[in-house]
Model the fold of this input.
Amino acid sequence: MAVIEVSGLTKRYGDRTVVNGVSFTVAEGEIFGILGENGAGKTTTVECIAGLRSPDGGAISVLGLDARRDHERLRGLVGVQLQESQLQDRLRVGEALQLYASFYPDPADWRELLASVGLTEQVNTPYAKLSGGQKQRLSIALALIGNPRVAILDELTTGLDPRARREIWKLIRAIRDRGVTVLLVTHFMDEAERLCDRLAVLVDGGLAALDTPAGLIAGVGDVDGYRANLEDAFLALTAPSHDS
Amino acid sequence: MSALSRLTGTEARLFLREPVGAFFALAFPAVLVVVLGNAIPAFSEPSADFDGERPINLYLPVVLALAIGTVTMTSLLGVLAQYRERGVLRRLATTPVKPSALIGAQLGVNVAALLVGSALMMIAAAVAFGSRGPESWPALLVAFVLGAAAMTGVALLIAAVAPNARASAGIGTLVYFPMLFFAGVWTPGPMMPDAAQRIADFTPLGAASQAMQAAWSGDWPQPLHLAVTAGYALVTCALASRLFRWQ
Ligand SMILES: Nc1ncnc2c1ncn2[C@@H]1O[C@H](COP(=O)(O)OP(=O)(O)OP(=O)(O)O)[C@@H](O)[C@H]1O
Ligand SMILES: [Mg+2]
Done:
């Protein structure tokens, strides 16, 4: 069953079209990744799906509801990690989690979640005193505190150290195993390859490819005599065109 | 605990953790009155210039106006602008609690701080100088509520139109000091020049201050001053709710 259905999504700022007729579906329990260069339209796409921006064209349904019209009902069902957003400087980690837990009818156990993002020791640390990676971990925890059915995570592990990234992958797989559908944006090819079931590659706001990681790699032949990896496939897909 | 009460409780704790802001909202009015009263002994002596009234009794309603101006133009305005700029409001828009709930929580916290700061000021003045309260409590309450509503509306409107937190703080300061002048902080009551008085009649804090001064001496505030504060409250709140951007 498709949990997210995007068809013909178009978004313009002024006379610039930053997302252009993008269509894809994400199945229940799938981990779906969006790749693309800076400015390709990834954040715009996922924030339209999260109901935070209104598209100029196309239709988006999430859990059978309209992303924008039914935003009210979807807020309780979809957990979102924004690429750019901060918390109050003096808000402590534990307070933030308990506060956000109180917003949802059936929240996750905040202490367990705190442990699974590795912030147990920081429970009394004010937000302003967290390191960049710790802020990111808190942001992931807040996206998951409401036991969402769909998690939308923009730049999931940016700023995390290698061990923390593996821990977060484990956490994402665990929530997927409980049936949560995950839509994530990443710039890390190993993360895309190991974590995601399918990938969409955006180029200049358009959908350039949509396949499994293995499928994307198979699409390019050997590079410099080596078997191509996902990064080669990504670079080939996003290479500036020479036909003009 | 409900989301709204937890949100308000959390914002109250954050408010108290900001020592400078908390001082200015809660303690500054009391400190100002006590310092002025001690520095200027004539402040608490009956004065022939004021029909035998003690000047401090004329100054307390002005300090109430100052308290309103300080809480709205610095504390409330600063927080709102910062919460938008930093994406706190936007973050909330992804949850079942709307960002407007956070603004509501902040309004509640600031109103509570204003009430506590005003009460402390009146108690300090009574204890230190034996000053008296208003002759008419109902009139004072009406004038105070209308004045606070007007200045809250001005804060919301500035937060709504300012492009970023810096601009908002700048506009806040540009409004704050003239407002204090028109409220009579430097030239209380009859000491304000006539021309300034005419302008003050039409500023939200100037009108509120005069309405509270009238209440203090037992008169019902002039309809003009009630109309001006009510008008500011209605117009600024309506404009702010239309113009406010959540991100
Ligand atoms: N609010 C906005 N107003 C105007 N232009 C915008 C706005 N948001 C995004 N854009 C433009 O839309 C394009 C896509 O932006 P978007 O944030 O979706 O990119 P992205 O793929 O998430 O990039 P990154 O990898 O850097 O996060 C960019 O060129 C950006 O300048
Ligand atoms: Mg982005």
